[in-house]
Write a structure and sequence with these properties.
The complex is a heterotrimer of chains A (422), B (338) and C (437). In chain A, 62% of the residues lie in helices and 8% in strands. Chain A is mainly alpha-helical and 422 residues long. In chain A, α4 packs across α8, α5 crosses α8 and α6 runs antiparallel to α7. Chain B has 338 residues and is α/β, with parallel strands linked by helices. Chain B contains 14 helices and 13 strands. Chain C folds into three domains: 49 residues, no CATH class; 63 residues, no CATH class; 209 residues, MetI-like (MetI-like fold, Orthogonal Bundle). In chain C, β1 and β2 form a beta hairpin. Classes of the chains: A mainly alpha (422), B alpha/beta (338), C mainly alpha (437). Chains in contact: A-B, A-C, B-C. Chains B and C meet through α1, β2, β4 and α7 of B and α4, α6, α7, α8 and α9 of C. Chain C: Keywords: Cell membrane, Membrane, Transmembrane, Transmembrane helix, Transport. Chain C: One of its GO terms (biological process) is amino acid transport.
């Protein structure tokens, strides 16, 4: 019966590392790891040798030294005496500004154009096709310099607003000026200001937040939350009784009244730009470089987003549109209430990569002299200090963090709108 | 399968790079070509023509060095560099000499480990404004919008100037001279600031140059000169004395027209020493005896180079000013050839 | 009673539909003026089209083809009477006439232009068996394999033995693989097939090539890569990056899909790192740091460094495209290959990759379009691609002040290239989707 003997005890042979599937994967991993570490060690060793030969060992001390150059667009206080670190931070904020603005307008434009490309109006559909192909097939760098050149050449210089026979005038009852140095718009001012909130003390990333703005925002958000509660209550009543109470005046009041009261209490008024000396003074100055970069990035990315939107809409089966039509919805409502919400699920994943692209493309700011982080840390600072390795490492790290944050946030949003399948 | 272009090219490059550790002079001789860093394009100083031939004042220096070392003014590879890439190109050995109107400063000489071999153009940072603006001094520029080229000492000088005079300004950083010119002409900035030579060169190409003035203030010293890597003194000497030969040639009246005649021998021993008919100066540098003759024949002496590329007869129309010989009240003063 | 009721006995002939519903008017009513909103949109867009064209066309049609400098163009325009309030209005096309060859070939020696042109033509022949499988005999795929070597030789010149010796490395690798797989087994064969060619390239290829070329000198005139410029540079960078990144991308994609934790995390780390930073920072690395990473004394030229960095950049995107192709394959293909007893590499080589690569081609083409457009960024690190050249041209005293003509010309050429490629990719996508039904 029990003729089965124990299998012969295998002795471990070296060749089993390769031929035995139990060990093979471990072997490959160890080899890969060793290879990677050898490569890394080789690179680091070379770098150390070369840097020693150049007499420039890695040292981030230069970040604390005074930068010596001025930056035109600064959201936080900065002067040529501030440190290189501070300059990099100013640049980082500028990058974030153009990236956020660009993503917002690109999305809006992209959705509109994507929808219009499917318009029944032959002419509109064709124009949108031309737009999409034009922007998709020409490098974005070319668009950036092109738009910058258009802004500079076609808009009037501030000089043209001057004197008796001015050739240009401000628009919107003298509150907005379009010049070839940028657009001047009124700025919000508070005569009974609460002052600023100083964050991070005296470090290079110190940051001031206007308390006035915070208070206004709190009032606005509070109003919106209140309005939503009113709407929810209306929904409940409608479900219970079938009648929906009129709420629009309540909603409007809840949103507007607290904000207006707070703003009045703070002494809100607008500061208008006015021509003084060489330039317009007062108001908020949106520089040409910002506008050109922002416009070019949004228009370029919008062309790609439009294609994604179109694909997303086409992916929704025709039955959905027809069913919505059978319910008596108007075409615009069909699009808004039925098709787009479903298409959104198809659109969001490619949208994430478009946002990433836009953010990365914002580094081309250097071509129009917009002082983003590539212009400060990777441009003038790198140039003046000769610390290429340190600057480029920091630059890459910053972009990596921004990219990973965007993917993380958008993936989380994508999860939250995903169809819950049960 | 298709990766080999890359690998093949890499091995070839690796082989070609084997000799980089030797002296630059030997490298250049072995290569038969001089690698010279120039700007990507600045009117009068360096720009390629339709055939891809580079021309300009800085280019002339490169050609003179090539002629001195290799006997052939065309044995130059011009490597266009930007303000950002020029120093790394030199430090990494990609170029042998950088002739790209680079300002001689302490930190570049000491901290960035380069050797400036001399000055081929004494410059200073100035301001250009439209005449219609009615500005006569840079001190009146409070609140003005100023176009500057980035990646240069210009923006540091500018920040210092406005800060020390306690007036405000709005900087508009710009990558290239061509873009700066466009913005300035369109009125997107009130003032354009760069080296005075650059201002003159730019102004010369305007449709109506008379409508623009260069303000009297020169806010910085900008000695522009060719530079080489620190630590290779033999090579530094070659470039330094090639430049000095051009300057000395003008001082001594050696021109490309009379050089053939003079090299037959003259009564002036210094001319003879420069042209190699007397003494062993070439040998000391490790070059042929007619090294300086070749350098001068490449494009003429300093004065001829100046006149041909940026002088009064060209559209750029720069006057000699500080760049005249010391005998004419300028700063050009070469050590004796002895 | 007589029946007076009128009864029609024959069918009336069909009437033509009302004018308002046929022909152009009907079409316009249907497609342009189907409601007040659409009508407004139509009128608005007509106005926009008119204003754009009326401002651009007179500028484009300007008689300045023979202008020799910007000042000369202005004279021609003044003579022709095209003078607006801000001076002359009209393009100065003389700059394009004088410089278009430079914008195409950079500083490549003009007597050797036939080499890049021939390479460009051969590129299409080589792409034929991959892109137009229906019309081109598949035997040509051999030519596609050889093309990179021929192209490198034609473009850079030098001894023919260099590419041949490099090619020999692959032949040696293949020979080793065939021999070792029977003698030692599959895995050892793969390791050897990878190692031996590398040893060949690093230690033997150089001496062998120089030895052979001293015996049988067969050379083309060498062209330094810094003479490359214009669109030729863009195309060279784009095509080289795509060709080189394909094998790298395949390895990365397989690594990312693998079960081996370390291999997987290395691949994911590399891909996400490259995709997370802008290309311009990688180009900064190429222009300032790459030499620092290499052993002291190494120095290879800037174009090669840019090629390396752009290849790494493209490889990360390529890996994601191929990963998409792998994911799109039905699981049955993997299981089928397993059930035939194929090992991992055999399954990849014979079953998975051919199919995955085929469905990835549209993605690969759009990656190529992206990389090709991104080559304009090299102008920022002082390479003379079309955009960089436009700056150099504007530094010529004759053409100082020219803006739109150069940008317009460059944009037009990029548009033609990219548009035709994207159309091709769409055609392919349609073809591939119908295959499945």
């Amino acid at each position: 019966m029990t003729t089965l003997t124990d299998p012969p005890k295998e002795s471990f042979r070296l060749s089993m590392l390769i031929y035995d599937t139990r060990y093979r994967s471990a072997t490959i991993q160890v080899v890969a790891m060793l290879g990677f570490m050898l490569l890394a060690a080789w690179l680091i060793n070379n770098t150390a040798q070369n840097l020693n030969a150049l007499g420039k060992p890695i040292d981030f001390g230069f970040l604390g030294e005074s930068a010596g150059y001025d930056i035109n667009q600064r959201l936080i206080d900065y002067s040529s005496r501030s440190s290189h670190m501070r300059a990099a931070f100013v640049g980082l904020l500028n990058t974030l500004v153009v990236a956020v603005l660009g993503c917002l307008t690109a999305t809006v434009l992209g959705i509109i154009i994507g929808v219009l490309r499917l318009s029944k109006n032959w002419l509109i559909a064709r124009i949108m096709t031309v737009y999409v192909e034009m922007f998709r097939n020409v490098p974005v760098l070319l668009w950036i310099v092109f738009l910058m050149a258009i802004l500079i050449e076609t808009l009037p210089p501030p000089n043209a607003f001057r004197g008796e026979n001015a050739t240009a005038t401000m628009v919107l009852s003298d509150s907005v000026a379009f010049t070839n140095r940028g657009v001047y718009v009124p700025e919000p001012l508070f005569s009974r200001s609460l002052g600023d909130l100083h964050l991070f003390g005296e470090s290079a990333v110190r940051f001031d937040i206007s308390l006035d703005l915070v208070v206004v925002l709190i009032a606005l958000i509070g109003g919106i939350i209140g309005a939503r509660m009113v709407k929810k209550r209306a929904d409940r009543i409608q479900e219970a009784t079938g009648d929906r109470p009129t709420t629009w005046y309540l909603v409007l009041g809840l949103i507007a009244v607290p904000t207006i009261i707070v703003m009045a209490a703070l002494g809100f008024h607008l500061g208008y730009p006015a021509l003084k000396g060489f330039n317009f003074q007062g108001g908020t100055h949106m520089r040409n470089s910002l506008i050109a970069l922002w416009l070019a990035l949004s228009l370029y990315t919008a062309a790609f987003i439009a294609e994604n939107v179109r694909a997303g809409i086409l992916a929704i089966s025709k039955g959905q549109t027809e069913a919505a039509g059978a319910l008596g919805l108007r075409p615009s409502r069909i699009m808004r209430l039925v098709v787009l919400p479903q298409a959104l699920r198809v659109i969001i994943p490619p949208l994430i990569s478009q946002y990433l692209n836009l953010t990365k493309n914002s580094s081309l700011a250097i071509a129009v002299g917009y002082m983003d982080i590539t212009g400060t840390l990777g441009g003038i600072t790198m140039n003046q200090t000769g610390r290429e390795l340190e600057c480029i490492l920091m630059l890459m790290l910053v972009y990596l963090v921004i990219s990973l944050t965007i993917s993380f946030v958008m993936n989380w949003y994508n999860e939250s709108v995903k169809l819950r399948e049960r | 399968m298709k990766k080999s272009v890359f690998l093949g090219a890499l091995t070839v490059a690796g082989l070609a790079a084997g000799a980089a550790a030797a002296g630059t002079l030997d490298d250049v001789k072995a290569r038969g070509k001089l690698n010279c860093g120039v700007t990507t394009g600045l009117v009068g100083f360096a720009a390629p023509d339709a055939n891809g031939t580079w021309d300009g004042f800085d280019v002339g220096i490169c050609r003179a060095v090539a002629a001195a070392v290799l006997g052939d003014p065309t044995a130059v590879e011009f490597v266009p560099t930007t303000g950002k890439t020029r120093f790394t190109a030199l430090a990494s050995g990609e170029i042998d000499v950088l002739a790209r109107n680079t300002t001689w400063t302490f930190s570049r000489d000491v901290d960035l480990k380069f050797d400036f071999v001399g000055v081929n153009y004494y410059d200073g940072q100035g301001f250009m404004v439209p005449k219609a603006l009615g500005v006569s001094s840079a001190k009146d520029l409070d609140g003005a919008t100023v176009c500057i080229q980035t990646g240069t000492t210009t923006e540091l000088n500018l920040a210092d100037f406005f800060r020390s005079n306690n007036i405000s300004y709005e900087p508009v950083p710009i990558e290239t001279n061509a873009e700066a010119q466009q913005q300035y002409l369109a009125g997107a900035c009130d003032v354009y600031t760069t080296d005075a030579s650059g201002l003159a060169a730019t102004r010369a190409t305007f449709e109506d140059p008379a409508a623009h003035i260069v303000l009297p203030e020169i806010i910085s010293k900008e000695p522009l000169g060719p530079l080489v890597r620190h630590g290779d003194n033999e090579w530094g000497d070659v470039v330094r004395w090639a430049l000095n030969a051009l300057i000395a040639a003008e001082e001594l009246g050696i021109t490309s027209a009379n050089i053939a005649e003079l090299s037959a021998g003259t009564n002036n021993p210094e001319i003879n020493r420069i042209l190699g008919t007397e003494g062993t100066l070439g040998e000391m540098l490790g070059l042929s005896p007619d090294w300086a003759k070749n350098a001068i024949m490449a494009g003429g002496n300093y004065g001829e180079l100046f006149e041909k590329n940026i002088g009064a007869s060209t559209p750029i129309g720069l006057s000699r000013g500080l760049n005249a010989q010391w005998t004419d009240g300028g700063l050009l003063y070469t050590p004796p050839f002895r | 009673m007589s029946d007076i009721a009128f009864v029609r006995t024959e069918i009336l002939p069909q009437k033509a539909p009302p004018v308002a519903a046929t022909g152009f008017i009907g079409w316009a009513r249907e497609n342009l003026f189907s409601g007040w909103f659409n009508s407004i949109l139509t009128v608005l867009s007509l106005a926009v089209i008119f204003s754009v064209l009326s401002s651009i066309l007179p500028w484009v049609f300007s008689p300045t083809w023979n202008g020799t400098s910007l000042a000369n163009c202005r004279e021609i325009l003044t003579a022709a009477g095209s003078v607006g309030e801000h001076g002359t209005t009209g393009a100065c096309w003389g700059v394009i006439r004088e410089r278009w060859l430079q914008l195409m070939f950079g500083f490549y020696p003009s007597e050797l232009y036939w080499r890049p042109i021939l390479t460009f033509v051969m590129l299409f022949v080589a792409l034929g068996p991959i892109l137009f499988t229906d019309f081109v005999p598949s035997k040509l795929i051999w030519f596609s394999g050889l093309f990179p070597f021929i192209a490198a030789w034609l473009l850079w010149g030098g001894s023919i033995w260099n590419p041949l010796v490099a090619l020999a490395g692959f032949a040696i690798g293949f020979g080793v693989f065939r021999y070792a797989s029977t003698a030692l087994g599959a895995l050892a064969a793969i390791i050897l097939a990878a190692l031996v060619p590398i040893l060949w390239w690093v230690f033997l290829a150089g001496p062998v090539a120089s030895g052979l070329s001293s015996v049988i000198p067969l050379e083309l005139e060498t062209v330094q890569s810094r003479n490359f410029g214009g669109f030729m540079l863009s195309i060279t960078i784009g095509v080289t990056a795509i060709i080189c990144s394909l094998p790298l991308g395949i390895i990365l994609a397989l690594g990312r899909q693998s079960d081996l934790l370390i291999v997987k995390s290395l691949c994911v780390g590399f891909i996400e790192f490259i995709r997370g930073v802008p290309l311009i920072t990688l180009l900064f690395v190429a222009s300032t740091l790459l030499n620092i990473f290499m052993p002291p004394g190494t120095n290879f030229d800037i174009i090669l460094r840019v090629l390396i960095m752009v290849t790494l950049f493209a490889a990360a995107y390529m890996a994601e495209v191929i990963r998409g192709g792998l994911a799109a394959l039905p699981k049955g293909q993997y299981e089928g290959a397993d059930s035939l007893g194929l090992d991992y590499w055999q399954a990849q080589r014979l079953v998975i990759m051919p199919q995955a690569l085929k469905i990835s081609i549209p993605g690969i083409v759009s990656t190529f379009i992206g990389v090709f457009k991104d080559t304009t960024l090299v102008s920022i690190i002082a390479l003379l691609d079309p955009l960089g050249l436009s700056n150099a041209i504007r530094a010529d005293a004759n053409w100082n002040g020219i803006v739109w003509e150069l940008y317009g010309f460059i944009a037009l050429l990029f548009f033609v290239f990219c548009f035709s490629m994207s159309r091709y990719s769409m055609y392919l996508e349609r073809k591939l989707t119908t295959d499945h039904h």
